[in-house]
Specification:
- By secondary structure, the protein is α+β, with helices and mostly antiparallel strands.
- The chain folds into two domains: 97 residues, Roll (Ubiquitin-like (UB roll)); 133 residues, Fumarate Reductase Iron-sulfur Protein, Chain B, domain 2, CATH 1.10.1060.
- It has a five-stranded mixed β-sheet with strand order 2-1-5-3-4. A two-stranded antiparallel ribbon has the order 6-7.
- α7 packs antiparallel against α8 and α8 crosses α10.
- It starts with a strand and ends with a helix.
Length: 235
């Protein structure tokens, strides 16, 4: 098959063609690894677990962000051709490897970290696992920060300040955590410039999430909560 692979960075790079033999039950990661092992040892890319647990192998495949270890060639082959590129919306370090700093910086900017209510010396606070808030928090905790949703998001493409689906989903998880002590800090972080109200609700993040999460629902929750908070503070 004819495989086009992005080489270089996002300023001076371009696609290079490789002929790769087709095999049974072949994944996109198998194809990239075969090129690196048999045709060009300088090809740079990331992977770790190979079984859909870490998300580090995410790339653009025929223009769609995917986990390459879980994507079978037969499901995405266009004629006899494949195009493999680095994730969209992130700076390219080299070839298929992107710089994830921007992605994680926005995760922090959205206050996607726990603000504890108690010290480690105090008893653990009991939480009702069937409570409404806990259910909302649980809905997003399987995010493994693969950045597929970030690459799929057209709002990120058009607005580099936008925090992005993963960061906002994490903020919604923290906001609904009964053990979090600073919910207003979370709302303030996600309601400013580049925050949840920039989302156009196109749903690409939810459509392409490999873990079947729903970042769009989380962003909608943040919009409601931040708007409610705004009007309460103006009373």
């Amino acid at each position: 098959m004819d495989v086009s692979v992005w080489r270089g960075d996002d300023q001076t790079g371009g696609f290079e063609h490789f002929e790769v033999p087709a095999q049974e039950s072949q994944t996109i990661l198998d194809v990239v690894s075969w090129i690196q092992q048999n045709q060009d040892p300088t090809l740079s890319y990331r992977y770790a677990c190979r079984v859909g647990m870490c998300g580090s192998c995410a790339m653009m495949v025929n223009g769609v962000p995917r986990w390459t270890c879980r994507t079978h060639v037969k499901k995405v082959l266009n004629g006899n051709k494949l195009e493999v590129a680095p994730l969209r919306n992130l700076p390219v370090i080299k070839d298929l490897a992107t710089d994830m700093d921007t992605f994680f910086d926005k995760w922090i900017a959205a206050e996607g970290m726990h603000h504890p209510t108690k010290s480690r010396d105090e008893p653990i606070e009991p939480i009702n696992p069937a409570g409404a808030e806990r259910m909302e928090a649980n809905a997003g905790i399987e995010c493994i920060n693969c950045s597929v949703c970030y690459a799929a998001c057209d709002t990120v493409t058009g607005n580099s300040d936008y925090l992005g689906p993963a960061a906002l989903q994490r903020a919604w998880t923290v906001y609904n955590d009964a053990k979090d002590a600073d919910k207003q800090v979370v709302l303030d972080a996600v309601s400013g410039a580049g925050g949840c109200h920039n989302c156009h609700s196109q749903g690409s993040c939810t459509l392409h999430c490999p873990n079947d999460l729903n970042p769009m629902n989380a962003i909608a929750g943040l919009k409601r909560a931040s708007a409610t908070s705004f009007f309460k503070r103006r009373r």
